[in-house]
Amino acid sequence: MAGAVFYDGESARRRPVSLNVTRCAIDIHEGAEWIASWPSAEVRRRDAPDGVLRLTREGASSLARLDVADADLQAAIRASCTQLEGPDRRERAGRILVWSLAATASILLCVVLLLPILAERLTPLIPVSFERRLGAAVDNQVRTIFTGRVCEDPRGHAALGTLVARLQAAHPGGPTVDVAVLDTRVPNAIALPGGRIYLFRGLLDKAETPDELAGVLAHEMGHAAHRDGLRKMIQAGGTSYLLGLLFGDVTGGGAIVFVGRYLVDSAYSRDTEAAADDFAGRTMGSLGRPAHAMALLLKRIEGKDDGEGGNDSRIPAFLSTHPVTDQRLKALEKQVPSRSGEPLLDQQEWRALKEICKTT
Ligand SMILES: [Zn+2]
Questions:
Q1: Which pLDDT score is estimated for 2?
Q2: 58 alpha carbon to ligand 1 midpoint, in Å?
Q3: What is the mean pLDDT of residues 23-32?
Q4: C-alpha 221 to ligand 1 mean position (Å)
Q5: Domain 4-80 belongs to what topology?
Q6: For a Cys staple, 45 with which of 84, 209, 219, 319, CB 3.0–4.6 Å?
Q7: Mean pLDDT of 322-336
Q8: What is the pTM of this model?
């Protein structure tokens, strides 16, 4: 039966052909010569002028097409080629769903399993100068979260400088840190990437001796020395990027908020905490000061922790970001110095430090 034109897709040649339409295929002949056989399931309809049924073969390497003008042939083709409009929509929707679930699952898998490993591997490779830049990028964000001003009473500031210098002297070649007190009731402390440590007034208020406070500062210096903040930030950055892929925000605006929040909110692992405690213990020990003083402070915060955050209850306190276990407390208590060193601050300096947030 004639009534169709075949184009091979390579030349402009118009080849009048006859078609033999069966349930399985369309056989295409030009005169006596067989040209092609298109399986029915692979035949697709394309846009065409009125009255013409234009067909192509799905998955074919060439752009061959078939224009069918004969009404009877068109009817026969419509009857035997059931997927002229493409594969069944339900099947296609199902396939899309399966693929999106697989993509979601693989992104979540990255977040949960691969990012921590990646962060672990990347952290030692990042230059300190770059770490400082990363820290500066989240610094503002963190200060916005805590809505606290930096306390700058000059005498308190000088006392804090003395304390930090003494702690740093215990670790020649250790990380350079820059400690500031934020005027916030929450009892917490946080080490940002790059050496900036924020001590919150809430924690300072609860400390009863310079040793208690020094222990916490040395613990934060341990996080700085181990680059724990940087590791957290890489993990948070990766997470926000991947979640951005999932939910469509890859602009980076949301990322910095997320990273800041994550740095502040998320708890360190038990091993990370133990390592920071160990650093604190060695620091205090080499200064001849007791490390267990810090344990006393932690217990005091633990005992009074409920509701003391006041209107800042959405802000985590020290214990939620630096989880305390009995094991940790016992390990700290065991770190008794072999010799006794002179006090880290005298009475006057300690009083000045306690009042660093008082406005003059
Ligand atoms: Zn910690």
A1: 55
A2: 60
A3: 90
A4: 9
A5: PH-domain like (2.30.29)
A6: 84
A7: 78
A8: 0.67
